[in-house]
Known about the structure:
Blueprint: E1 2-7, E2 10-13, E3 18-26, E4 33-39, E5 46-52, E6 58-60, E7 68-73, E8 78-83, E9 92-99, E10 108-109, E11 113-118
Parallel strand pairs: 2-11
Antiparallel strand pairs: 1-3, 3-8, 4-5, 4-9, 5-6, 7-8, 9-10, 9-11
Amino acid sequence: QVQLVESGGGLVQAGGSLRLSCAASGRTFSTYTMGWFRQRPAREREFVASITWRGGIPLYSDSVKGRFTISRDTAKNTVYLQMNSLKPEDTAVYSCASRTRGSGPYDYWGQGTQVTVSS
Length: 119
């Protein structure tokens, strides 16, 4: 089992920045990919970004590319999401997830952290 705990959410004005953190514990040695997802009001959960745990190779959705940066600290078992140039449409609950494979569904999920961007 892997436990994921997010932090860093909050209220920010449009154009501002936030950095989310996701600390992993448990059987983290089996992690292959970690990702960030978000669920905006009245919409389905969507992919935001992911990173391979060993190689650090990032992947972004088109909606955040150029504004968000995903990174990881393997010594701390933590993945980060630096969010810049935030827009009101970025308002969502952001969750991190991990999986033991390079593709397919994610195995473990955090509880999520609220990000609210005011206009």
